[in-house]
Amino acid sequence: MITGYVEDIASFLEFQTSKETLRFITCGSVDDGKSTLIGRLLFESKNIFDDQLSSIETDSRQYGTQGESIDLALLVDGLQAEREQGITIDVAYRFFSTEKRRYIVADTPGHEQYTRNMATGASTADLAVILIDARKGVLTQTRRHSRIAAMMGIRQLVLAINKMDLVGFDEQVFTEIERDYRRFTEGFAFHAVQAIPLSGLEGDNVLFRSPRTPWYSGPTLMDYLECVDLSSERSCSAFRMPLQWINRPNLDFRGYCGRIAEGEIRTGDAVRVLPSGVKTRVKSIIRGFDEVPHAFRNESVTLTLMDEVDASRGDVMAAANDPPESSDQFEARLLWMAEHAMTPGRQYLMKHACREVTVTVTEIKYREDVNTGAHLAAKTLGLNEIGSVNLSSSAPLVFEPYRVNRILGGFVLIDKLTYETVGAGMINFALRRAKNIHWQALEINKTARAAMKHQKPRCIWFTGLSGSGKSTIANLLEKRLHTEGMHTYMLDGNNVRHGLNRDLGFTEADRVENIRRVAEVASLMVDAGLIVLVSFISPFKSERDMARNLFAEGEFVEIFIDTPLAECERRDVKGLYAKARRGELKNFTGIDGPYEAPQSPDIYVPGTSASAEASVELILRSLK
Amino acid sequence: MKTQALKQALDLYDFDAVFGGARRDEEKSRAKERIFSFRSTGHRWDPKAQRPELWSLYNTRIHPGETIRVFPLSNWTELDIWQYIRDENIPIVPLYLSAERPVVSRGGQWIMVDDERFPFEPGERPSMKRVRFRTLGCWPLSAAIESDADTLEEVIAETLHARCSERQGRLIDSDVPGSMEKKKQEGYF
User: Fold this and answer.
1) How many other β-carbons are positioned within 10 Å of the β-carbon of residue A485?
2) Is A538 a known active-site residue?
3) Looking at this predicted complex, what is its ipTM?
């Protein structure tokens, strides 16, 4: 029996290879019957194996939602959690074929919570089957999924008005839903929308024309899938190939490897490597182990070039006379997929073609109302929200608008700390005036840095006699600020005198220079957005005023730790007073050097009456 | 079992990623797999919280202790595999081709008697049958099918007309409901 087939195997396989593949998704709201419809499609087209069928017969008794009948949704709802709850959580991919086409269908979840999984399925699909429960009509989730499908570049749409059996196959119900939906999708870039009345549960108009919808003269779902024109999906643009790897096994060979994203390439063709723009010609094309004269879209190849050009992973090889643009400022549409809202100013990793760069969203232009498409003002973009944003990347990206090139136009954003994939974006265009407005668009200044740290940068300047308790209190204060998530830095005699100021002694001139340098460093650190604690005796009013003048109003906080000389001398932690009294230390503040006590410090801390902890509390209260 | 050995090897060599040949058309929980499938510390798969995977952009970032299983053949079908083997003339294990082999019948499946280590159950006696394996897994938990297909072309012809799924002979897939999913969560490929 087998031998009869064997002779045909070669021609059969030849035929298989020539078949077109249609990738489609089913989407729509919860309980619209997506999984059941796919189950029905597979069942009636005899694409279910006997053992799978007998296994879902068993499973239907345990998990089924269809009473005595088998629950075809169980064919695709393969996770235990899905079966227990009777819902779809993640995309399931199923494969089937007919005489005409091969199909990859992604059954996507309807719950809003799992929108990112729907987007995952939609990103690689040519066609979407949007289901609608005939009893419920167009719902918010129907609109959200339609919007995402359109945004992902799906141009062919089937509007499957399902559960017609539950509305008595009423033509008017069908017509009204179709009209509502068409009104909603006006202005969407769908090429075709085919509405079909069907029942996934009972099989009407799935494979076979239903006698219960005599008023409907259009195709069944399967007829439509078999015949839908895919040619418009296959563009014929110029050659583009993002470089995955430069293969250099020895000095005599340098191969540029990648998968052709668009167009085709022949030996001798002129190409450019972008973003550098260097031009050369293709010497040879290697596909697998063989040299070939030309290669096409979606093939993975290695190119060798006439000249040794400098290129690395992430660069793009393109037709020399029609290269794509490169820019570091874009407008893009963004679908946010994380619990943590997207905030402008925060940095994310962007994965774009074969390149990974750091990007910042400089501005949210608007958020889209999922129902009406209205542009709403937004400060952040929350889970499952869609918005239009401006982005700035750390390096120029070679790109094309998503609508003409999915590979050079699509990107994902990755959180820098958790590494979660948090956003999916589609580039619309480069911000043309980028070069002129660059610094306005992304002005990184004290305010921006401070905003990232969620704090007000300040210089907290402790003055007081040696042994007054300045450093103890300043250290304690820094610990408190740190535990509250503040970014701080402590400048004291130890870490400055040993490095930056080690050329300075203790003469009056050197002491003034010492303070000047410390004040300048503190000022730079405040500009970097930090809270800087400076603990120096700083005996002269003029130096302290000089320091104050380096800062903006309210940034410089002078704290006077007022401990009487007698008490400081009694403590004499470092034995310095004793030395000074013996005349071994010259110009010692309080003994033979003056201390000009501040007349009106920003914060006054009596150094004897309170503990260091209480003093810190006092300072924290005053700072707020 | 394969799962334990795999986990030990991953821990020992501290690999970031391992490649596997699993396909979505094989089994219902594999139908839910990402191409770059993330595993948390301890090699666990959380099918309810998979990373979104858009276009062909794969997020390969992981923290220490986390790993990735990569399934480049996710969208291939059983037929695609055989066709590729034929096109590229790839050698195959002879067990995929039909031959006279000693088997016993258990629970409606043909289990092959490989060698003297095979544990017979009371009353079992091997008989000779023309069998082959459609899928090769753990011993002795992979069943053979009765078949005369002893050439690659005949195997393809048989695959085309099969009424049962490829993994029908994998006993571990059906011991309890959601069997494969549980094993995958524990680190199975």
Assistant:
1) 9
2) yes
3) 0.86
